[in-house]
Amino acid sequence: MGQATKNIAILGSTGSIGTNTIEVIRSCLSRFRIVGLSAHTSLDELYSQVQEFEPEWVVGTCRTAWDEFQHPVLKDTANLGGTEHLDSLVRADNVDIVVAAMVGSAGLASTYAAIESGKRIALANKETLVMAGRQVMAAARLNQAEILPVDSEHSAVFQALGETPLEQVSRVVLTASGGPFRDFSSADLKNVTIQQALAHPTWRMGKKISIDSATMMNKALEIIEARWLFDLPPEKLGVVVHPQSIVHSLVEFIDGSVVTQMSPPDMKLPIQYALTYPERCTSPAQKTDWTQAVCHELIPADFERFPALELGFEVARQGGTTGAVLNAANEAAVEAFLNGQIGFTDIVASCRTILDHHEFDPNPDLNELIKIDAWARQEIAKWILA
Ligand SMILES: NC(=O)c1ccc[n+]([C@@H]2O[C@H](COP(=O)([O-])OP(=O)(O)OC[C@H]3O[C@@H](n4cnc5c(N)ncnc54)[C@H](OP(=O)(O)O)[C@@H]3O)[C@@H](O)[C@H]2O)c1
Predict the structure, then answer these.
(1) 20 to 30 Å CA-CA from 249: which of 50, 160, 183, 241?
(2) What's the CA gap between 384 and 386, in Å, rounded?
(3) Distance in Å, CA 80 to ligand 1 centroid
(4) How far is CA 333 from CA 16, 196, 282, 386, in A?
(5) Which of 304, 319, 334 lies at the terminal end of a domain, its last residue?
(6) 3 state DSSP class of 285
(7) Nearest-CA residue for atom 21 of ligand 1
(8) CA 103 to centroid of ligand 1, rounded, Å
(9) What CA–CA distances, in Å, run from 373 to 238, 366, 385?
(10) Mutate to test the pocket of ligand 1, among 50, 102, 112 (most ligand atoms within 8 A of CB)
């Protein structure tokens, strides 16, 4: 029997995850139809995607860039300028799957709207769960929305866990490539440049996540993401460094068995699995070369040289407002680093200070999280001036 075509909206279609999603869809056009696309500033690229896929919805989330963009054909398509239109797009009846591929806390509102309308969400935007994991997962249960992980580590954990009850899981260990500074001393880390920090050894990604990988804040955010996505107590979570980026994470069960998911570092595989789950189908992702000898290292993570990791575990333990504060402080600090306003090690140091002196609320609502996000960004601005 033929497979029903699924209608997909890609939010952040011009980014690294967005363009990988488009490659996946190109390879199985009989299964998927793109009905919505959104981008922020890369409107030429958005325009060529619109020409290829002719979606019903096109949203430019940066109002200024959108208003300045004058392409006549795009102007004749069903198109909307401004973030607020993402809400209508993700709630549209003919959208089956929302790919949340935008970067940063800007992803929270539209992902939450997709959850409220009971959609399947292929979630790349980990910041949504870092900021508001408890609220987002509660809304998903209430509205029977499916959240399928796109992060390769969480996809691996999802696949390894299967239907096993959580009482039978003793540990979930996320792997980290270790980033470009895996072997740098603490002293060397103080002097790294923007170009060095952006040069990830195994993955090609957007700028923000590349810097997060270099500080290992990415792994801290993923610990928080895993805590909420799989409802795991933080003491069952761990991190190991795996420079080859082939073992995407490991689940240890109470009988001592360790189950993993392995594949070459290629985001097309976890993206496709989030779209086709529970089915598997042939994919354009790179395949394992079984003629080559390989060595898979698993090295204990160094919490002293990479203090972001401790922040991740602290936030996973404390919950409440801490996730939103850490996420916003980190986003603002990464931007400041990329603008040459602060040094590399200031990113995590400033997050630590701001987290330590924020007014903790154990049970905030979404409005409060949005306010505290703005507060943390202001604190980073003060840190830069100090
Ligand atoms: N890249 C990876 O391999 C990877 C792996 C796992 C998880 N993730 C997660 O996936 C998300 C996207 O990462 P990425 O590497 O694909 O980032 P990216 O390459 O920087 O792309 C970000 C996308 O979001 C859009 N965007 C930027 N600012 C926005 C805003 N304020 N409002 C709405 N849209 C905005 C961008 O539009 P324009 O380009 O048009 O400005 C672009 O389409 C992040 O949460 C990241 O942590 C990424």
Answers:
(1) 183
(2) 6
(3) 19
(4) 21, 17, 40, 14
(5) 319
(6) coil
(7) 15
(8) 4
(9) 27, 10, 19
(10) 102
Looking at residue 169, what DSSP letter applies?
E
Angle at 224 between CA 218 and CA 228, to 5 degrees: 140
User: Measured in angstroms, how far is the CA atom of residue 224 from the centroid of ligand 1?
Assistant: 19
Q: Which residues line ligand 1 (CB under 6 A)?
A: 12-18, 39-42, 61, 101-103, 106, 124-127, 151, 203, 205-209, 267
* CATH code of the domain covering residue 18: 3.40.50.720
Number of domains, the chain: 2
User: Among 300, 319, 338, which residue terminates a domain?
Assistant: 319
For ligand 1, atom 2, the nearest C-alpha belongs to: 205
Tokens of 337: 């680093």
- Is this model's pTM higher than 0.90 or not? yes
For residue 20, the one-letter residue type is N
Q: Along the 386 residues of the chain, how does pLDDT read in single tens digits?
A: 457 899 999 999 999 999 999 999 999 989 999 999 999 999 999 999 999 999 999 999 999 998 888 776 666 566 787 888 999 999 999 999 999 999 999 999 999 999 999 999 999 999 999 999 999 999 999 999 999 999 999 999 999 999 999 999 999 999 999 999 999 999 999 999 999 999 988 888 899 999 999 999 999 999 999 999 999 999 999 999 999 999 999 999 999 999 999 999 999 999 999 999 999 999 999 999 999 999 999 999 999 999 999 999 999 999 999 999 999 999 999 999 999 999 999 999 999 999 999 999 999 999 999 999 999 999 999 999 88
Cβ-proximal residues to 162 (8 Å cutoff; 6+ apart), any chain: none
**Would you say residue 359 lies in a domain?**
no
Q: Of 112, 209, 211, 249, which is best to mutate to test ligand 1, by the most ligand atoms within 8 angstroms of its C-beta?
A: 209
- Give, using CA atoms, the residue closest to atom 44 of ligand 1: 103
